[in-house]
Design goal:
six-stranded antiparallel β-sheet; single chain; 4 helices; 161 residues; alpha+beta; globular; 6 strands; Beta-Lactamase
């Protein structure tokens, strides 16, 4: 297991490329979903300085707050509600340049300005979502989408049936 992060690069893509093997090292040999989600959230926030990074787990037909880094957050989200609930319902990554323009956005914090939410699949079912918020408008791109999907996939591969 990695004890600390060593991130290189100046562009976001270079930082993701530097981070991916370190995330794999964090996950290696650890099967606890909560522990792994906590380390991923911390690694993403530490690397990029995102406003909020965390996971919501599907439990009893709602999303329930899991490990996160940032300000306090909404505890439960219904399917189809807000960006996270929409991601869960559609089973696809949702990238929002301006959260105030997203119909039904749930404002857990008024400081959040843009957001990306990635579904996490296990056995073709969404079992969680990875939620990343920024305090900057239009802060996420296809680069984030590609690499956050890869991180979600690596985490899902550690989930025990």
């Amino acid at each position: 297991m990695a004890e600390e992060l060593s991130i290189s690069g100046t562009t976001r893509e270079e930082k993701y490329k530097s981070l991916l093997p370190q995330i794999s090292a964090l996950l290696e040999g650890e099967t606890d979903a909560v522990a792994n989600a906590a380390n991923i959230a911390a690694a993403l926030r530490q690397t990029f300085g995102f406003f909020w990074v965390g996971f919501y787990f599907v439990k009893n037909n709602e999303l329930v707050l899991g490990p996160f880094q940032g300000d306090i957050a909404c505890t439960r989200i219904q399917k189809g509600r807000g960006v996270c609930g929409t991601c869960w319902e559609k089973g696809e990554t949702i990238l929002v340049a301006d959260v105030d323009a997203f119909p039904g956005h749930i404002a857990c914090s008024s400081l959040s300005r843009s957001e990306i939410v990635v579904p996490v699949f296990k056995d073709k079912q969404v079992v969680a979502v990875l939620d990343v918020d920024s305090d900057q408008l239009n802060d996420f791109s296809e680069t984030d989408k590609i690499y956050l999907r890869e991180i979600a996939l690596r985490w899902s591969n550690c989930l025990i049936d």
